[in-house]
Amino acid sequence: MGLLYHPEPGEIVMCHYEDVVISPEMRKARPVVIVGPRLRRRGRLATIIPLSTTAPQMIENYHCRIELSEALPPPFDNIAMWAKCDMITTVSLDRLDRFKGSRTSGGAARKWLTGRVSSEQLQDIRTAMLFGLGLDSLTNRV
Fold first, then answer.
1. Residue 121, in any domain of the structure
2. Which of 56, 52, 84, 57 minimizes the C-alpha distance to 68?
């Protein structure tokens, strides 16, 4: 169904990439962090960075390790995650959703959850994005 609201920068939600992709594009549902604000006249689009629980084989400047203060629901419940900042994507909110949590007591309503990175982690992710875009001259890192 997709999100009915525009998530804030730093919010972690699920992205369903699998609808129409061509290899080596991202192919499966995975957590993503929102990195851009809602733009005027572009309200149904969000700019995202995918997250992985697996460390890259070779760590580059466009990879960013983060530690969440609170784990996401399984199977993404590792506190340590890697932002793949070379895979910046702008997607429709229809591809995004919250994480499916447990049901409330009595089995009635389901809880829907999101995660969040700290403002410092969001800044680190945005810096790594510049490396992923070849704009490392705009950073303080070399």
1. yes
2. 52
- Domain of 32 in residue numbering reads as 11-134
User: What are the percentages of helix, strand and coil residues in the chain, rounded to 5?
Assistant: 15, 35, 50
Domain of 127, CATH number, reads 2.30.30.110
- How confident is the model at residue 2, as a pLDDT? 86
Q: Residue 3: its pLDDT value, please? A: 92
In a domain, 91, yes or no: yes
Which strand (E) or helix (H) includes residue 137?
none
**Number of domains into which the chain is organized:** 1
Q: Is 43 helix (H, G, I), strand (E, B) or coil?
A: coil
**Domain membership flag for residue 6:** no
Reported pTM: 0.89
The 10s digit of each residue's pLDDT in 45-70 is 999 999 999 999 999 999 999 999 99
CA dist., res. 94 & res. 127, Å (int): 27
Q: Is residue 3 part of a domain?
A: no
Q: At 134, phi and psi to the nearest 5?
A: 75, 20
Tens-place pLDDT, residues 15-54 = 988 766 666 667 788 999 999 999 888 889 999 999 999 9
Distance between CA atoms of residues 83 and 69, nearest Å:
15
